[in-house]
Amino acid sequence: MHRIPLLLALLLPTLPVAAQEDPRDIADIIEFRHWAHANPELSNQEFETSRRIAEYLRGLGLEVHTEIAITGVVGILDTGRPGPVVAMRADMDALPVEDRTGLPFASTKTAEYLGNEVPVAHACGHDIHMSVALGTAKRLVAIRDELRGKVMFIFQPAEEGTPPGEEGGAKLMLDEGVFDIARPQAIFALHSQPDLAIGDVGFIGGPAYAASDQFVIRLKGRQAHGALPHLAIDPVVMAAEVIQALQTIRSRNLDPQAAGVVTVGVVNAGQRYNIIPETAELQGTVRTYDGEVQDMIERRMHEILAGITGAHGGEYSMEYKRTAPATVNHFGLTDWAREQLRPALGEEHVKYFPPVMAAEDFAYFANEVPGFYFWLGVTPEGKENSALHTPTMRAEDEAIPVGIEAMTALLTRFLEAPPEL
Ligand SMILES: [Zn+2]
Ligand SMILES: [Zn+2]
Fold it and tell me: Residue ranges per domain, the chain?
């Protein structure tokens, strides 16, 4: 029984290993977190973050691959003994958001974004995720003599989406062959969750994040004087009908149990109060968990657009772009992971957490190999916090050791006795 000594080793305050320092001492990880938080970098610009991560991983003695998908870094912990290959992923990028967390290491950085100088902050907690990954690597290195197989620590750029015209993120890492370095049998990731208390993690089997699609609709009519509507084909009236009718997809075409959102977020038409314009433009997003529902929504949008513009004598075009697919937690891996997390964190700290309609490009990894993505509480018990992507979302350092504990349990147990998936 290899299992008991390993578990004991993980629980003992001091480890009987040849590490230079106590791997539970995470002062260096906290220092990295404070640096990363104070020096956030936007998507596809994570150059300094990437450099520091690579340096830390090299210092641990890992095999390090850099410049994957621009700034991506992969650290390989190879125990030298045959066994499973398992991966964890941490995202690296920050957001064009002002840092109003009040943390002593709050960001005062700015960067150019879409032609404007903007404040930059880790408002999505990716500084926490990187710190957890580095801390987990440190822990595993300290017990490498007890492990077999390989662990991949994947540091991914541009999770928040790339600047217009650029490629990046999980998809580009895969396109550039990240799984040719080593092909994991499973991949894990966590994300900061301000709605959970420090000490808790949240999870769900099946869909966790939605597929995110973007659409641009152009409605074409005929221009006329605002006082002579009978000479016009009015794209503003068509747009109003289209916006209303698109909501019937949710209310009348979708199974009430099926998840789906159709949102029009941009409406553009006209220049002057007394002119009926020639065209109108609508932009929006569709969010789904299921490919069939996604196909159905796109088809219904075309039918609605053809019907309404046809009735008015106008025309339409629609660009419909599918970006990240849904992030779906592998059911078998989820069941297994829950059983590892409970003893590691305490039964009451491993909680059910409902899926969300935001998107996450971890989906690309989880479509390649079984994936499990869970949420890490970052808010002190009983305290209020703000939502992700807002200036006052505040993640505390104390969440980091909990994340390390959770990831260490998942990765070590996977190497020891991987589940049948
Ligand atoms: Zn985010
Ligand atoms: Zn995020």
Answer: 3-208+326-416, 211-322
| Torsion angles phi and psi, residue 332, rounded to 5 | -65, -45
The helix (run of H) or strand (run of E) holding residue 375 is strand 371-379
% the chain with pLDDT above 70: 95
Q: Report the separation in Å between the CA atom of 66 and the middle of ligand 1, taken as the mean of its atom positions.
A: 23
Residue 16 pLDDT class (50, 70, 90 cuts): very low
Query: Cα of 329 to ligand 1 centre, how many Å?
Result: 19
- DSSP 8-class letter at 301: H
- SS3 string of 38-94? HCCCCCCCCHHHHHHHHHHHHHCCCEEEEEECCCEEEEEEECCCCCCEEEEEEECCC
Q: Is 240 left (phi over 0), alpha (psi -120 to 50) or beta?
A: alpha
- How many whole angstroms from 159 Cα to the centroid of ligand 2? 7
CA of 366 to the centre of ligand 1 (A): 18
The DSSP secondary structure of 227-292, one letter per residue, reads T-GGG-B-HHHHHHHHHHHHHHIIIIIS-TTS-EEEEEEEEEE-SSTTEE-SEEEEEEEEEES-HH
- pTM for the full predicted model: 0.87
- Residue reference for tokens 């004598």: 313
Topology (CATH level 3) of domain 211-322: Alpha-Beta Plaits (3.30.70)
* Ligand 1 centroid distance, CA of 209 (Å): 12
What CATH architecture does domain 3-208+326-416 belong to? 3-Layer(aba) Sandwich (3.40)
Q: How far is the C-alpha of 105 from the C-alpha of 35, rounded, in Å?
A: 8
Residue 324 Cα, ligand 2 centroid: separation in angstroms?
A: 14
Closest ligand to C-alpha of residue 358 is 1
